[in-house]
Design brief:
Helix content is about 45%, strand content about 15%. The protein is of the alpha/beta class. The protein has two domains: about 170 residues, Glycogen Phosphorylase B (Rossmann fold); about 180 residues, 3-Layer(aba) Sandwich (Rossmann fold). The strands form two sheets. It has a seven-stranded parallel β-sheet, with helices on both faces. The longest helix has 18 residues.
Amino acid sequence: MPLLRHLQDRFRVAVLLPEAGDFSQTLKREGIPLISFPSLGRRRIPALYRLIVDGGYDLVYGNNTSGSSRNALIAAKLGRVPFICHARGMLQRGQWRKYWFLRRAHAVIAISDACAVLVRRYAGGKRLHVIPSGVDLKDIDRRESTEVEAREKGPPAGVPPGVPIVLSLAHLTPRKCQHYAVEAMARVVRDVPSAHLLLVGAERDPKYVDHIRHLISERGLAENISLLGFRRDVLPLLRAADVFLHTAKSEAQGLVVLEAMATGLPVVAFGIDGVADSVHHENTGILCPIGDTQGLARAVTAFLRDDSLRRKFGERGRLRVTERFSSADSVARIERIIEDTLASTGVAMSSLRSGDHGLATASKVARSTDGAG
C-alpha cells in the first residue's frame, strides 16, 4: 500500500484486480481507482489491451510473476507501452515456460537477494533491480499514538493474563510449516509451562489446518496454542507478543518479519531465502536450519526467560528496519525505475499515468499491519 499511496501523489494510477475483496475495500478507502475483471486469464488479453489503449495508460506494472502478469505483458506489448514486473515470490527452478515473459519486461524488481538469484536466470543485467519491501515506521508509530497500549487492554481473547506470548503470523498452509511451530512449542512448555502460541492467519488449506489441530491435541497443547484465523488487528497482536516465530520453508522476503522487528520483537525463524536477508542472526533474531524444532524451541525459551535479552534484540531489530527497510526508500527507488523506463520510451513525465496489474498477489502490495500474510 505505501507504493500505491506514493505513486498516486504524482501519477494517475489505476489498479486492476480479478475480483472484489478485502484489498478492494482498502483501495476504496484510500481513494485509489479500481478496475475489476471477472478473471485475468488468457481470454482477457484482448480486454486488457483495449483497457490500456482506451484508458491512455503509459505503463503497465505487473505485481507478481503469475499468469496474470504474463497476460498483462502481452497486452502491454500489443498496446506498445512498457511493462515492469515486481517479483515478490520465489520462482521455481527450471520453470522457464512460466517465466519467459520476464525476458521481455523493461525492468524487473526483485524483493530480496534470494529472489534475485532466481530471477536473474530470466532477467539479468541492468534490467534487474533488488529493492526490498519496506515498513512504514511513521504509520506504525502514528497508529500507536492513537491507540491504548495493547498490554493495557489485556491479552488477546482466550489467553490468560500475564502469560508469555509467542506470535506466528502467516496463512495456514504447508509452505508456512506451522506444524514446526507446534512441535517447537511442545519443547518450549517443558521449560516455560505458561507460554502461549498464537497462530494467526487465513486458513487457506482445510486439510492442513485439520492436521495442525490434530497435532495440537496429540501433543497436549490445547491450553498453550490458539488458532485465531485471519485478523485485521495485527498491530495490537504484535504489541502483545514477546517473541515472533516464523516457520516458512520458502519466503522471498517475509514482510511480516520486518513488521515484527519494527515493533521491537525478537525473531526466531528458519534461515531461508529472504528471511536470512532480513534477520541478522544472533543480533536481531535467531535463525535455524529448516526443520530444527529443537533450535527454534531453545531460542524462544531463551527470549521468554530473559527480558533484557528480548529487549536488546528487539531494539536492534527496529534499528535495522529503520536503516535498511524503510518503505519511503523503497518506493522512491521504484519511482525512479518507473521514471527511467518511461523516459527511455519517450513518455513525457508531465503526462505519466501508470497502471498496476496483478492477481491474488496484488494483496501483498497492501500487506501491512492491517492484515496477516
